[in-house]
Design brief:
homodimer; DNA-binding; 200 residues; mainly alpha; elongated; two-stranded antiparallel ribbon
Chain lengths: 200, 200
DNA sequence: CTTCACTCCCTATGGAGATAGGTACTATGG
DNA sequence: CCATAGTACCTATCTCCATAGGGAGTGAAG
């Protein structure tokens, strides 16, 4: 159900087509939510049917049209209601930590490869997050810039600080993952000296 | 697909019934993986059909029997193969951070309530994780104790250190969530003074 | 000897999400 | 004017997971 609100959040900055949204979801906004287009298009249709969005046909080339989605008042109300509603708590279900707890069964080289993969992924992700965080602070983040034009200047700080707050958390998470992977690599090295053969 | 390997991981310490597993999943093991019994029973049946497990009927009272599941050689091989296989990367999809990025739309009291809820949840979870981590170090963790009896003493350190490593990461995550929620509460207090009315 | 909490196993339903396609038009660059 | 990349929209299928039940036996307390 969060996809619906992620879409409302994005569209509250400016109207977009499904294609625009899918592009954003695979880029910057993917840091807080991600969805493939095969989920986005049906959800947009459902949201229009439910009155949360209105689609405006826009000419596109000589023969084509595209649908630009605008948030309705009902959509804004639904978004506000969601924002004020209690959190849904997600259970922990991370295959990485499940695997890590049983690495004594793994070949040391396979363990190293996985920890390095984890390290590389989070290092790249961390760089992206830090960059995006900086564009928020600079007010150069494209979606944020569109959003700010809709609000008076005295609201701007408030809006930006919550976004930076969210990214602060994501950056800390990424840093922790990188540090954890480094400790894991050191552990594998240390234990390989002690016992080079896997158990049993 | 990870549920299957979480079950193999648990059953590799000792044979259990589906009910035993469901209990463990809702308690300590839930830290790395969680599943309701309605997923566990069908999966156990499928795993037996696939030859990864064998069920042994055990008398239970005068009229009843229960099925105790044992890992087969094929099951152990599948587990080893999974352990050595590359990681599957999970996309970030956390409704908490999505919401946090748009808290400028929220009523300050609602925002505070949510951040406090997040704080309380992770504080409790952190205490559980730290406790479990300590029982691993002490060798008083019940499942670990069963597991260690299957391996020679010189393997014990290796086994325990990987489990502690996994919990180290989980503990750091929980600490980060608690700290993030505290910063969020401070931010809401600070901004409420600046602008008591929601945007628009 | 009955009530009640617990053990044990299972099914049904529906939403969410991943993956993998398909169709049709546009804009570009050679 | 044609190949190609890109824009735009959509469907099908499958797995995962959550939620909500049902049904039958056990063991201990009153």
């Amino acid at each position: 159900m969060s996809l619906r609100f992620a879409l409302l959040a994005l569209l509250s900055s400016r109207p977009m087509t499904g294609y625009d949204i899918a592009k954003h979801f695979s880029q910057s906004v993917a840091h807080v939510w991600h969805a493939p287009d095969s989920q986005i298009y049906p959800e947009l249709n459902r949201m229009e049917r439910d009155g949360l969005l209105e689609s405006v046909p826009v000419r596109w080339g000589p023969n084509g049209t595209k649908k630009e989605y605008h948030v309705t008042d009902a959509g804004l109300a639904a978004f506000r209601e969601w924002i004020d509603s209690p959190l849904e708590i997600r259970r922990q279900r991370d295959p990485t930590y499940l695997k890590a707890a049983y690495l004594e069964w793994a070949d040391p080289d396979a363990a190293r490869a996985q920890l390095r993969q984890h390290h590389d992924y989070w290092t790249k992700h961390l760089a992206l997050l830090e960059h995006t965080r900086q564009t928020l602070i600079d007010h150069t983040h494209p979606t944020l810039m569109h959003r700010l034009t809709k609000f008076p200047a005295e609201e701007h700080e408030r809006i930006v600080r919550f976004k930076v707050f969210a990214y602060d958390g994501l950056v800390d998470q990424a840093r922790a993952e990188v540090a954890w992977a480094e400790r894991g690599l050191a552990l594998v090295d240390e234990l390989e000296g002690a016992s080079a053969t896997p158990p049993e």
